[in-house]
């Protein structure tokens, strides 16, 4: 029985993180047009530097590591090569894979993960994510000010939405 590259997480958010990471690595790996080429590119880096690294790839055959990460959501942080390098660390060292590293290490996964966080940590993570996205947290005073502007100043320009037909192009009626 073959051993899988990492334990299959049961939490949906962790599986989603791992699957998105594998897809981004596939997309960003230079010259990769198949899962086999992604495996060949990255797995040789965690096996190189040992006396048997040349024959190791020949004896193993096709490992389908990244394909498992994408289809099953296995944890890429659990695979260690024969030269004691972790796959995730080797991939994240490459500057071309910056987006995959940023996605994998995002604080969003802490919020959606299986562990419930204390409220202070949740507020802190919200603040960091809002700042990263360039958004602001609406305080009660900002909400009141916004409502005042909408109701008093912008009332004549405000549009009431009743359905999708409100946005069709209307031509002025010209009697015939």
Protein architecture, described:
- With 176 residues, the chain is mainly α.
- Helices cover 53% and strands 0% of the residues.
- The protein contains 9 helices and no strands.
Key terms:
176 residues; mainly alpha; 9 helices
Q: Please, what is the average pLDDT?
A: 75
Write down the oligomeric state: single chain
List the total number of helices: 9
Low-pLDDT windows of residues: 161-169
For the terminal residues, how far apart are their CA atoms?
A: 82 Å
- List SSEs in N-to-C order: HHHHHHHHH
User: Looking at the structure, what is the overall shape?
Assistant: elongated
Helix content: 40-55%
- The percentage of residues in β strands lies in under 5%
- Overall SS class: mainly alpha
List how many beta strands DSSP finds. Answer: 0
Radius of gyration from the alpha-carbon trace, in angstroms: 25 Å
Main beta-sheet strand count, sense and barrel state: none
SSE layout and pairing:
Blueprint lengths: L11 H17 L6 H13 L5 H8 L4 H8 L14 H7 L4 H7 L3 H5 L6 H15 L6 H14 L23
Helix pairs in contact: 1-4, 1-6
Question: What would you say about this model in short?
Answer:
With 176 residues, the protein is mainly α.
